[in-house]
Structure prediction request, 216 residues.
Amino acid sequence: MIAIIRTNMILCEICFTGKQNQNKINHIMKKTDAKNAQQTRKVTAKSSAADGLRELFVDSLKDIVYAERALVKSLPKMAKNASEPKLIEAIENHVVITEGQVERLEKIFEILGENNRGKKCDAIEGLIKEGESIMQETEIGPVRDAGIIAASQKIEHYEIASYGTLAAFAKTLGEDEVAALLEETLAEEKEADLLLTDSAYNAINFEAAEEDNSED
Prediction:
């Protein structure tokens, strides 16, 4: 009889503990669901938010013209910190090309009848800052050159994606002249990316690797 009572008491305790654990699990799940709901809720648009493709297109153009103007200022610093002659030449040549791209964008704004004032581009600001950080964290020579190429290619890939999207928007909006100008810039960015890849694989990255091995 005593054994039966003890068994029942143990079973009751197990059930009570189980309910407590289940309650804890339910509480955690509710908190998790609430947190996920907060993280995945729709973002409230600003009062100035674009409500049409044309507005989004013009807004994106303001982003990229800001980016190109920022690069005209930052690329010479990269060239000054590079040491491989072909890399320096490639960056300096791209400064001239970028200046032409700014002029092309200003022409696009004129065609569209829009103000060419840029809008701060957080993406390019971050990429430029990352490039400066790489230069600060590397010694002048092959290793820094390799870092500069990596930073430059990230910028090129951002620009390639941006101009590809802008050209598609222009075509959708029936702005064929604008689309042709954007595709011209897109081709230049793709060529710049290939030149940087060529520099990386033909000499600089291998020299950087050899420098690392010599230190071991």
The chain has one domain: 53-215. The CA atoms of residues 31 and 86 lie 57 Å apart. The domain at 53-215 is CATH 1.20.1260.10 (Ferritin). The radius of gyration is 28 Å.
